[in-house]
Write the structure tokens for this entry.
Amino acid sequence: MRRLKVGVIGVGHLGKSHARIFAGLRDVELAGIVDINPLRAAEIANQHGAAVFADHLAMADHVDAASIVTPTIHHHEIACEYLRRGIPVLVEKPLAVNLEQANELVELSQRTGTMLQVGHIERFNPVYEELRRLPINPKFVECERHGAFTGRSTDIGAVLDLMIHDLDLLLDLVGGEVAHVEAVGAAIFGGHEDIVNARVKFASGCIVNLTASRMSPTPKRKMRIWAPEGYAGVDFVKRRLTLVQPSHELRTNGIPADPAFLPMFKEQVFAKLLRMREVDLNHGDNLTRELEHFVHCVRTGSAPRVRGEEGRDAIALATRILDSLNQHSWENRVHGPTGPDQLPNPLGDLVPDSIRRAA
Ligand code: NAD
């Protein structure tokens, strides 16, 4: 079988891993590297014996497929050029900076019949794959996605940078129309929102509470799901699934009426009344699995797990969240501070200089 020639456009923090993984895949040739930083392009290309091209246009005739791992503001322009030429692309998440651009990419992919996959990597996390296999009908979901400020992805805010992962998962898991969105967010480093909370109500009645922050000292990526079937806690970092289900006895008879049971309640709650299971799924690398899937879909012509349409739908929901947080009035006054850039003035210091010096 001829090796599939794949190119990587943008080899920064994440793109270098795309290059390394493609270079190591059987039946794939890492045929080209593009980066606007020529030193960076040469460094990564040398590591894998790949050719460097001046820009994505120069590389187009030399590859069968490409992944686009540039800052999000460039996704639309580069992906359009490749889709017009019929070259399948994997575009990192978020698909584009706004819904208009995302719609154009989906329309172009459909019109030219060219594959467009979006890099929503959590779909390839084994813990999410396991969750998806379970019979669960979410009715209340909490999502937390926290990371430190890295100075990257400053072309977008925390909604398109982080929350977009959970929005995509929710649309996949819960699905259906979104009835209502309410959000609040604050820009701490300037430019775009860095911390966001959103409440999303699906037409099915499922209510979701999401928080995304890129100013947290400890990374956290968790989802907690309450459903008629029980509870599922997903830790995307540890790749651990915690499942709790009321026992048959509890569902049928309720808690034991015997007063002698009461003192033992705490110890017995998980032994008798609730059934609990912890599942560790810490195997395989999510990005490798995602890129292998991309190569498989290019070769076989099958639809990718996350198509342009799904990437676009996540951006549509993100846009509603952004509209809501941009309109949020912090003091409920007509001309008062509104939106992530206009925080009310601080009342005082929470960490005065004297305490900082002592620490
Ligand atoms: P980065 O800033 O570290 O790297 C971007 C690279 O693209 C840089 O080397 C830059 O020189 C290069 N570049 C910029 N414009 C270019 C252009 N027009 N043509 C070619 N190269 C260009 O950013 P990053 O953290 O690697 O993020 C890149 C993309 O990946 C973003 O869209 C981001 O949202 C996404 N991302 C996804 C995940 C995930 O979990 N799936 C994680 C991190 C980043």
Q: What stands out?
A: Residues 9-15, 34-37, 40, 69-72, 74, 92-93, 119, 121, 152-153, 161 surround nicotinamide-adenine-dinucleotide (CB under 6 Å). The radius of gyration is 23 Å. The CA atoms of residues 11 and 40 lie 7 Å apart. The longest strand covers residues 178-186.
